[in-house]
Specification:
420 residues; alpha+beta; seven-stranded mixed sheet; two-stranded parallel ribbon; 21 helices; 8% strand
Length: 420
């Protein structure tokens, strides 16, 4: 096979001794991506190598609580190589049959020859996701969410594979899965071509409520007054916002904030429906607790908290006072969502303004005292309690002067236009 497979194989041959090559096989996503003509990100191997052979080339063993033993080593430029060790090559077919889906059970030897005892190449051509065995989901229930992630990338589960999910209650089996593993699958799904499909399928198949109870509440909650939200329920609204944002950004953090931007609406008193006054303020604290529960990085916690609190203000950007615009820009910078927030806003509100001046507000908000023309002597003249107020007012003055210039020469930084 030309191109990338040869490059990867040559690299592997360079790190393993020649007497090991016949016992090493590429497997899983990297082979699947080769067959699809896609750039691969991970190198997974199955190899009949002894521990001492692996240790001699720098591999380390990891024993997971809910996963099998994996040997690994990181290589600059290639990332982490993960390797499953076998007693000898006669175990290869058995090992492949234990994998999740047939399209992930295709192996390739160091000569570039395909090894496919499960018939995965046929399913690959048809875009079908078929379990390797009826026990596949029982062996590792997290594979259910991996299947949904694949579907978000355009694959389709076979009827038989889907039936294995539908015909039982998975809640007790999923309870023993670390929530971090679910969160990783969700974030990977957000990078897919159709990320909303992941959440839609969770609801369709009734799986994952123990991980994302918020998701299962969304369909029961109105998105808002019907005049503003003809789509009806909150789940449909969030899927629409995610779709629109995904058309503009592949970033999983941006897409995550887009889908959960209205998390504060989950705690609205039902007597107030269909309105959700105060959901932005409620969303700030709820978002932080939500991300902490999912064991997500601090960047996700801060970004979603501020996106929840600020998106409503940005939806009204052209009606805000200059002081409020600067405060919103400062908070967006603090939350790391300066680029994310306007994307969510134009996706959230069909008739949203263009956020003219947003880039200027960000620039002025980040200005130093020197850039604002404030001397050290002037700052020293002010009491400690007055300095922040004076500094902010100078930024307001600078922003207003900048906006006057922008109105006279309206070319530099146009805002984002609404998404149809």
């Amino acid at each position: 096979m030309p191109g990338k497979p040869i490059q990867i194989i040559d690299f592997l041959k360079s790190i393993f001794p020649a007497n090991c090559h016949a016992r090493i096989f590429l497997v899983g996503g990297i082979v699947r991506d080769f067959l699809s003509g896609r750039e691969n990100r991970d190198i997974d191997l199955i190899a009949a190598l002894r521990p001492e052979e692996l240790i001699s080339v720098g591999f380390h063993l990891v024993r997971g609580k809910t996963t099998s033993e994996i040997w690994f080593k990181h290589y600059s430029g290639y990332g982490t190589i993960e390797l499953t060790a076998l007693p000898d090559t006669s175990y290869l077919a058995t090992e492949l049959s234990r994998r999740d889906f047939t399209v992930n059970s295709i192996a390739m030897d160091m000569d570039g020859i395909i090894v496919d005892p499960m018939g995965g190449t046929k399913d690959h051509k048809l875009g079908l996701l078929k379990v390797c065995s009826a026990d596949s989901f029982n062996d590792d229930p997290l594979r259910i969410f991996r299947a949904l992630r694949f579907e978000a990338d355009g694959w389709k589960m076979t009827a038989g594979s889907e039936e294995l999910i539908r015909n039982r209650d998975w809640s007790r089996s999923l309870d023993i899965i670390p929530i971090e593993r679910f969160a990783r699958e969700m974030l990977k799904a957000l990078e897919s071509e159709y990320p909303e499909r992941y959440f839609q399928r969770m609801l369709e198949l009734g799986v994952g409520e123990n991980f994302l109870p918020e998701l299962f509440l969304m369909q029961q909650i109105p998105a808002g007054p019907i005049i503003h939200h003809p789509e009806g329920d909150l789940f449909t609204h969030c899927c629409q916002v995610l779709q629109r944002v995904s058309n503009r950004s592949p970033d999983p953090l941006t897409r995550f904030c887009a889908f959960f931007h209205d998390i504060g609406k989950l705690v609205t008193d039902k007597s107030l429906y269909p309105k959700h006054h105060g959901h932005d303020r409620a969303g700030y604290g709820l978002a932080r607790a939500f991300c902490d529960r999912l064991r997500l990085p601090a960047t996700y916690r801060n970004a979603l908290a501020w996106a929840s609190q600020l998106h409503g203000k940005l939806n009204l950007w052209d009606k805000l006072r200059d002081t409020t615009k600067l405060k919103v820009a400062q908070q967006a910078l603090k939350g790391g969502i300066a680029e994310i927030l306007p994307l969510i806003s134009v996706a959230d509100k069909a008739d949203c303004c263009e956020h003219v001046g947003w880039n200027e507000a960000l620039r002025v908000s980040g200005m130093t005292t020197t850039e604002l023309g404030i001397t050290t002597e002037k700052m020293n003249e002010l009491s400690a309690g007055k300095r922040a107020e004076y500094l902010f007012q100078k930024k307001v003055d600078m922003f207003r002067a900048t906006m006057v210039k922008l109105s006279e020469h309206p070319h530099p930084t146009p805002g984002l236009k609404p998404i149809p």
